[in-house]
Amino acid sequence: MSLLPNDQRQLLHKCLLKYVRNYAPKSGPGSVPGEGMADEDVVMSSLAKWLEVDLESLDDKERPVDASLLPRKWNSIVRLQRRIIELEKHIQELTEENEILLENGPVSLANKSSLTWIPREQSKLTISCGAPVSSVKLHPELPLLFVATDTGKLQCYDLMNHSMPIASLQAHMRGITSIDVHLGEGSECYVVTTSKDLYCKVFRLMDSQLHPIRSLAGHEHVVSQVCMWKHGTDTLVATCSRDMTCKVWDVANGWCLKSFQPHGEWVRSLDIAGDYVVTGSNDCTVRLSHWPSGRGLSFGFGHTFPIERVKIIPMLRSTDNTDEQQNKYNTLNQEYADLGFSHVITASRDNSIRIWQVPLPKIVAHRPPQPDLTRQHFTLITTLQGHTSWVRDLCIRGKYLISCGDDRTIRVWNLSTDELVRVINSAHDGFVNCIHTDSDGLVRQIMASGGADGKVKVFIK
Q: Looking at CB atoms within 10 Å, which of 119, 323, 376, 421 has the fewest?
């Protein structure tokens, strides 16, 4: 069976005859005139008959044959064969590695080097986005990075080839304030954004394109932050806004399931754990609420300037590798098992990071949780001092806390000892607005940061 179509095979055969006729040795001096020519004609006729090519067609003026086409085709074939061999070898290596990982299970994936990894002081990749970066998020499984800018543009970069975004669109008319990424059924990737244009929008990444599927309207001022999570069989989105409200939406139909007002001023940040939401506000307080009922349960005060970010420290499950992930704030506590966490972290414009213990609400059967009137205030456990300007964002990775701020630094803290273990100075040429790293599984050793200088820095082992 021929590997080439008939027309290409005929063209290749013509190139062979053309090459032989042009470069075959001619009859030398001393030979009988005409005899060399006769020998050459016999050879050419035999070769043309074997290749099933008409010799007269070689002199066809309408389709001239390039005599150098055969060497070029041969060199191309050799290069392609070499590349195929290299790719087959690489595929075989990846297949063997994947089989080993599947045999050993998920625990071996989170090996000790991954669990204890912290970013180096020098970034591996730099991506220029052309506008201040307001939020960055890594895809949970693939080497993809989602970037939002202050001009309303949403982009997706492949970290294996980051020269150009694989997907880019003008998601909002004004600046994007935050993004979140969630894997749905069948590894469908959803990206949700909030913006200064008062909208929250949901996109699906499919065929390397971001397709809008839902626009959530209802806030009356800047929407500050968003969280997307799975609640039973439903996919929900929670947003907070400068209109002092928090709203919970159903992505399937776009309905607002709940709207409540946990603060008396701009709600800047929120984090979700099951039926509970922790919020931070311009009123300098952090509050715990039960979102299905909208009831406030407890609050913490002590910051002297607005809170920029709040993070829940989830408790470890019994199946987690507690040796390397455990810190004194996420240890399994049966008393807090129903709540799912016992401590939260806040970052503020007063240059400090604070870790709080949350008081337990009263759990009443068949009724929403009730505030404990004897313990309504968060307990301040420790204050992490080190930043010299506003602290903008937080990430938790195992026993490490990573923070960034307007002092242009990224700092890594050990949550087991509350000590500062690394400072990345001058991470950006401007304010460091956002950071993100893997928190579940802790397999990949990667972190991304976005700055007011319009650049994204990617830190890889």
A: 323
Please state, in angstroms and rounded to a whole number, the distance separating the CA atoms of residues 408 and 404: 7
CA Rg value for the chain: 32
pLDDT at 95: 82
Phi and psi for 319 in degrees, rounded to 5? -90, -5
The string of pLDDT tens digits covering residues 192-215 is 999 999 999 999 998 889 999 999
| 377 contacts 395 by C-beta, under 8 angstroms | no
Rounded distance, CA 351 to CA 280, Å? 15
| Nearest alpha carbon to residue 153 among 129, 181, 137, 180 | 129
Neighbours of 373 (CB within 10 A): 7
Tokens of 33: 């005139």
Q: Is there a contact between 231 and 213 (Cβ–Cβ < 8 Å)?
A: no
DSSP 306-356: -EEEEEEEEPPPTTS-HHHH--TTTS--GGGTTTSEEEEEEEETTSEEEEE
Could you report the per-residue pLDDT of 227-269, keeping only the tens digit for each?
A: 999 988 899 999 999 999 999 999 999 999 999 999 999 999 9
- Compute the residue count for the chain: 461
Picking from 127, 139, 136, the residue whose alpha carbon sits closest to that of residue 154 is 136
Closest CA to 170 of 201, 138, 126: 201
pTM > 0.90: no
Beta-bridged to residue 391, according to DSSP, are 405
Rounded Cα distance between 18 and 272, Å, is 74
Reading the block at residue 109, the tokens are 């994936």
Which tokens go with 266? 């701009």
Q: Are 364 and 323 in contact, with CB atoms under 8 Å apart? A: no
Place of tokens 């005599």: 67
37-54 as b/e, with b when 16 or more CB fall inside 10 Å?
A: eeebeeebeebbeeeebe
Structure-block tokens of residue 3? 């590997």
* Token pair recorded at residue 409: 């630094």
DSSP 186: G
User: Is there a contact between 278 and 268 (Cβ–Cβ < 8 Å)?
Assistant: no
Q: Which DSSP string do the residues of 9-68 spell out, in sequence order?
A: HHHHHHHHHHHHHHHSPPP-TTSPTTHHHHHHHHHHHHHHHHHT--GGGGG-SSSPPPTT
Residue written as token pair 């609640």 = 231
| C-alpha span between 315 and 207 (Å, rounded) | 36
The Cβ of residue 457 has, within 10 Å, a number of other Cβ atoms equal to: 25
Give residue-wise pLDDT tens across range 94-127: 887 777 666 655 444 445 556 678 888 889 999 9
> Among the residues of 62-174, which ranges form H helices?
69-104, 106-109, 112-115
